[in-house]
Structure formats: structure tokens, C-alpha cells
User: Fold Lipase from Nocardia yunnanensis.
Amino acid sequence: MPRQRNSAARSRPISLVKIAVAVTVVAAGMAAPRAAAEPVDDFYYPPSQFDATPGAVIKTEGMSIYAVAPGSDGSWPLPAQRVMYTSRTQDDAPVAVSGTFIEASQPWRGSGPRPTVVIAPGTVGQGDQCALSLAFPTGIYANLTPPTFSANQEAQSAFAWNALGARVFVTDYIGMGTPGIHTYANRIEEAHAVLDAARAANRLSDSGSGTPLAFWGYSQGGGASAAAAEMQPGYAPELNVKGTWAGAPTADLAAILDRIEGSLIGGAVGFALNGFLDRYPALRPELDARMTPAGKSLLQELSNDCIGDVIARHPFLRTNEYTVDHRPLVDHMREIPAVQDILRQQRIGSLTPASPVLITSGRNDDTVPYGQARQLATDWCRSGATVTFRTDELPPILPGATIPNHFGPELLDGFGTDSALGYLVDRLNDKPLSGCAID
Assistant:
């Protein structure tokens, strides 16, 4: 069920001084558990009736992006649009999704027609206020009551593609900003959100279904872009997808939930579980019987948190503190057949992408396991896909701390030498590529 909304408690982006105060308050761990999330802006309410066509543009509003350097012609801020578009849940029900569209501001530096790059964000949280379309103007969204903050971790990639002359669309995913729970790492719903964002971008730019497209994502976004790549032939066959970057893809949730237990972002286990419980409510009695009252309260709190809030209030969270027998939640999830069925259904790799995919993964990634990313490449290669798999050999630094071992490879693989950026520019330039290469 959609979370209840109360228009009397709306919050909006605030000044940089208040942002600094909010970050300080949250980082100091002074925040009390947050109440149910309220709408962050009237824009995120969908109309009572809207076009159910996947990729239909429901509404837009102008946005000025200040968190970017002035253009070569001195233009600033960067104009953009906050967008609401139609997608589909895993049960094929129409749903309104929000996102950010940045029209190109300079000539495309590659060859051929101007492309559109759809960016699937990495983990930002589960609360509505975590939607990146809120954070784009200043680079961060923050609020004091209740204290919360969310940084725009996709700004660098969005601005890099904009500087190359590409159109950019960054989806917020289903249930992020808009009514309902964000179904974290749900491969079907994330793929739909990405593919329908591409359709919406084609409508916004009036460029047509032949527009060259690239999908870009890391971590949760890597899983979303990978799922979009393999579902595109069946769900959106008209799209002209040239290539995909799936960095540290969340391809096998069972392996990932094991890995993040006790890590800096261990609370993300709750994000996944909340999504499961919303889409499969029959699971709740079984899980309720295994969790303490504090555990149930924690899940409710996490459903309204951003990843920054989780790091500030629940770093290195271990779920055994919240179960009746003091075993980790993931152990209980292994014992529930319905949960195991869901995890199998959520595994990426059972379909075949029709366009080239670059998969990157850090051998020492302490958050998204290297082995399951490599397995995705192997599965796709066996089915005849064009796949390049690259291993990042960054040595382990403070294992479990997430930032150096997980986000370090994102910067190196996305923008460094032999980068994902270069790989996708080659695909958009129609540089030939076929077969599999797994290093």
C-alpha cells in the first residue's frame, strides 16, 4: 500500500547553511527514528488518472542545476527537467516514476546522431526524500525535521555525459519520491524503470525510437542496467540500445545480502526485505515471528531512510541483534522457501542482452561480491551475448568499510584508463565488437 501523505508536513530543499547543519546533526548520530515519510514536493503526486502507456510522460517541471561548473560559454546554471513518467510493476500494473532529464547543451562529440544515456543510480536509500531528482539542483537534499540527507552520487556521471553532448536521463526508480515503497534491487521493476525512462527521454527530445541509447549504472545501478539490458529485447524491442555498463552489478541478491551483513551499509538488508514484504505480503507472518519488536521498528525506520542516514545511525549493522534467536536475518531468509524462490527469481542472467555489455568488478569489493559479477558474465557468454568483463585489482583497504573497496573501483572503472565511458562512446560510435572477453 502507498505510504500515507500529509500535505501539512511538506519539506523542500533548503539553504546550504541548513544543509551543513543537517549533515552535522545526522552524522553525530543525534537523529531519532524517522516517522513515515511525507511527500517532498507536490510534483511527486501522480494525477488520479494518467496515460498507462510505458514511457508516457505524465508531467514535467523546469529545474536549475547549480552543482555544476559553468559551461564553456559561461552559461550557468544548467537547465534540466524533473519528469514523471509511466512504468510497470513486476505484476504489470502501471505506476508513476520520477526522474531527471538533462537535454544536451553542446554538440555531440562522437559520431552519428546524438545519443541518450540513461543512468541507473546506485544505492541512495528507500525514503522518498532520497530521490536524486531532489538532489540534482544543489548536489544534496537535506532536511532538519526529521534530520535526513541524501547526496547526488550520480552527478559526476551525468555531467560527464552532458559535457560530451549526450542527453541524460537519471531515473529515481519505482517508489522513490512517488507513492509506495521503493522495491530495492528488484530486477524486474528496476529494468522497467530504466527502459521506460529511455522511452520517456525519446518523447521529451522528440528524437524517436531510433535514438542511440546507452545504459550506465554501478552497484544497485549496475544491477538495474544489467537487468534492463537483458530484458530490453522482450520488454522494449523498439529501443536502439548500443551498449551498457554494469559496474559491480547486484546480480545475485543471496550472495550480496550475505556480504553486506555487518558492513558499513548493512542496513541495506532492510531495504531489500521491505521491498519483498511489500510485493509479497504473505511473507510477513513468517518473518514477524522471527523478529523482535525492535527489529520490526528498525525495518519501518529503514523504509524512510537514505543511505547517508543509515551510515550515520546504523553503521556496520548486524541483524542478529534484531531476531528472536540472535541469528542474522539472512540465515532466517535461507530457511523460508518463499524467500528463496524470490531470490532465485531476482537473479540476473537468465535472459540474453541483444547489445554489448561491459561488466566491471573489484576483486576485493567488500559490498557487491566479485564472484557473482563474474558469474553473470559467464552466464551471458554461454547464451551468446557480447560481453566484456574487466577485473579491478585495487588492493583491499579497510575491509567492510565499503567506501574504498566498493566505491574506489567505481571511479577507476567508470572514468579511468580504459574506462566505461570510453567503452560506451565506442559503442555509440558503432565501433564493431562481438564475442566474449573475460579477464
Notes: Residues 1-208 form one domain. The chain is about 35% helix and 20% strand. The first strand starts at residue 57 and ends at 65.
